[in-house]
Specification:
The chain is an alpha+beta fold and about 600 residues long. It has 18 helices and eleven strands. It has helices at about 10-20, 20-30, 35-65, 80-85, 105-120, 120-140, 145-155, 285-320, 345-375, 380-415, 425-435, 440-455, 460-475, 485-510, 510-545, 550-570, 570-580, 585-590, and strands at about 65-70, 70-75, 160-165, 180, 190-200, 205-215, 225-230, 235, 240-245, 250-255, 265-275. The strands form three sheets. Strands 3, 4, 5, 6, 7, 10 and 11 form a seven-stranded mixed beta sheet that branches.
Length: about 600
């Protein structure tokens, strides 16, 4: 099935009606980003994604990538689609005009990334990884490095990667072994092996720019001794083109559960020439620019799989005839009723819908903050940075967990047919599974949220967000149509603070309490954040209906989905709160040797 459609109407709701991006762009000085231009970009992007990328999604899964003698061939049609992508100027959409970009808001690039990801996530990873490389070079590179590499990345003729993981270390980068020996010409000789490198080798672009973590000879131990380097596949020639082959080769491709269309490479650096980015031994600080870009990109993956699964299962549920409705036939002239009449099928569909549309609102909110960090005032940038610091681990982990849940529900709607490859639902499940692992697992994101962002800030970052929730509730407390949402949201907003204080107090006695509570804390936080956004969406929809404006059926569906979320999904917070309060003892009392006998 390739009939995924870009949900332009809902994208406009999340950005224009809920978050007022039109005014947002104007206030930041993005004069070119007029509503007409934004609409034109979205419509053209949707055409490319639906007509070019969507038909290649199953092709990529079935064919995968081929490795031979260190060279990788991507699936049929991938290279040609990338050429169209570059010729249309999509890679340069939201990058600085000084380096060949179009200077449009980063948030607009996020919308394009969502469209690409929804139709073909594996293909989208090739240009997607380049954004992190571009952001890293733009923030930390020298002017010479920007002129040499950034311009090529922006135009899309070169792509980028992020090289962190090694065979013996993943999250714990403090023990990485890759070495960087100084050369006489100011460059460095990079040696080591990196694994799990997405888009690490392919035939789609002229060159690949690897952003690599390695250690200098005199580096201190641990994370304080890591430096960051540019290591191109081909060294730039004097005219700026891809020249001599560098000492980095693809040793093999991983055999994976999903995302077969993307090359996940083992890269061997054998005295490869590299160039230092940023100060020596500060590589991890610089790399966080790339990692934060990637974390928000991975949040998009969760949203993309939720949307794709929802669309396909909704179409199937309207068409598939099975049994009669318990409340009487709804299709009396047919052999049975369509399965969408059955309450449990509706439960699955509405869960997918609530997570996809709620996730879109959360990604849009995060993207809006990225714009503010680029062009806001100093105070505005600080506020946006704080909000992003708090929301990024939630968006990454919560949306990938709910995206995987949604993908599974989509398969379940198909029954046995969902397990059969031709429908595309089992591919969606397989492709979605990696998202909860990428860029730090759910557990790592949870530790970052609870340990670093909340407790280490003495709750300041949390309070900045809960104040927004409080102000919304206070403003709408007397609005009759919103009473069910506001009342529950107020209760959860208070409980959020209470449970944070409880965990913090327990952690002062036993540090393991943080790790024991962290994933439940993150999921609790995610449900409340989406609850806040769904309550705001309900206000917009209610106001539009009261004023008799726009598509009434669209707004009634928004209200119905908001009610479903509050009645059926938001109660999950109670289980997470109880689990957090149960403490660490029930996790730690069993000795390791007694887990199995």
């Amino acid at each position: 099935m390739t009939d995924v459609k870009i949900p332009l109407r809902d994208m406009r709701f999340a950005t224009r009606e809920l978050l007022d991006w039109d005014q947002h762009y104007a206030s930041l000085g993005y004069e070119e980003a007029t509503p007409d231009l934004v609409d034109a970009i979205l419509e053209e992007g949707a055409k490319f994604c639906e007509n070019v990328l969507a038909p290649l999604n199953a092709v990529g899964d079935q064919q995968g990538c081929t490795w031979k003698d260190g060279e990788v061939t991507t699936p049929e049609g991938f290279k040609e689609a990338y050429q169209q992508f570059v010729e249309a100027g999509w890679p340069s959409l939201a990058h600085d005009v000084e380096y060949g970009g179009q200077g449009l808001p980063p948030s607009l690039g996020t919308l394009m990334s969502e469209m690409v990801g929804t139709t073909n996530w594996s293909w989208g990873m090739y240009p997607g990884l380049s954004h992190g490389a571009m952001n890293t070079l733009e923030e930390h590179g020298t002017e010479e490095q920007k002129a040499t590499y950034l311009t090529k990345l922006v135009e899309g003729t070169w792509t980028g990667t992020m090289c962190l993981t090694e065979p013996h270390c993943g999250t714990d980068l403090g023990i990485l072994r890759s070495k960087a020996e100084p050369n006489d010409d100011g460059s460095y000789s990079i040696s080591g092996t990196k694994i799990f490198i997405s888009a690490g080798e392919h035939d789609m672009a002229e060159n690949i720019v690897h952003i690599v973590l390695a250690r200098l000879p005199d580096a201190p131990a641990g994370t304080k001794g890591i430096s960051l380097f540019i290591v191109p596949k081909f060294l730039p020639a004097a005219d700026g083109s891809a020249g001599e082959r560098n000492g980095v080769t693809c040793g093999s491709l991983e055999h994976k559960m999903g995302i077969h269309g993307n090359a996940t490479a083992v890269l061997n650096f054998d005295g490869a020439k590299g160039f230092l980015i940023g100060p020596p031994n500060k590589g991890l600080n610089c790399m966080f620019t790339f990692m934060n870009t990637a974390r928000l990109g991975t949040a998009l993956q969760g949203l993309s799989h939720a949307e794709a699964g929802f669309q396909k299962s909704l179409a199937y549920a309207k068409d598939r005839l099975q049994m009669r409705s318990l409340s009487g036939p709804k299709n009396p002239d047919g052999a049975a009723d369509p399965i969408i009449v059955h309450p449990d099928v509706r439960r699955m569909l509405l869960t997918q819908k609530a997570f996809a549309e709620g996730g879109r609102m959360l990604v849009a909110l995060c993207a809006q903050q990225v714009d503010r960090t680029h062009k806001g005032s100093d105070e505005d940038k600080k506020d946006a940075d704080d909000l992003l610091a708090f929301l990024t681990p939630i968006a990454k982990a919560f949306l990938t967990e709910t995206g995987f849940e949604s993908a599974n529900l989509g398969l379940q709607c198909f029954g046995g047919h969902g397990y059969i490859a031709e429908w595309g639902m089992e591919q969606n499940v397989r492709d979605a599974r990696i998202a909860t692992i990428y860029e730090g697992t759910t557990g790592i994101q949870a530790l970052d949220l609870l340990g670093r962002k909340v407790l280490m800030s003495q709750g300041e970052l949390l309070r900045k967000f809960t104040k927004q929730v409080h102000k919304f509730c206070q403003a709408e407390i007397d609005t009759e149509a919103l009473a069910p949402f506001v009342t529950r949201l107020q209760e959860l907003n208070k409980e959020w603070g209470d449970v944070t204080m409880h965990v913090g107090a327990q952690a002062m006695e036993n540090p393991d309490e943080v790790g024991a509570a962290s994933v439940d804390y993150l999921m609790y936080s995610g449900y409340v954040v989406l609850g806040f956004l769904w309550a705001r969406a309900a206000k917009v929809a209610s106001d539009k209906l009261a004023a008799g404006e726009g598509d009434a059926e669209f707004y009634r569906a928004k209200l119905a989905t908001a009610r479903f979320y509050f009645d059926r999904i938001l109660p999950r917070t109670a289980g997470h709160a109880a689990a957090m309060k149960s403490g660490a003892a029930n996790l730690m009392e069993l000795d390791a040797e007694h887990f199995a006998f």
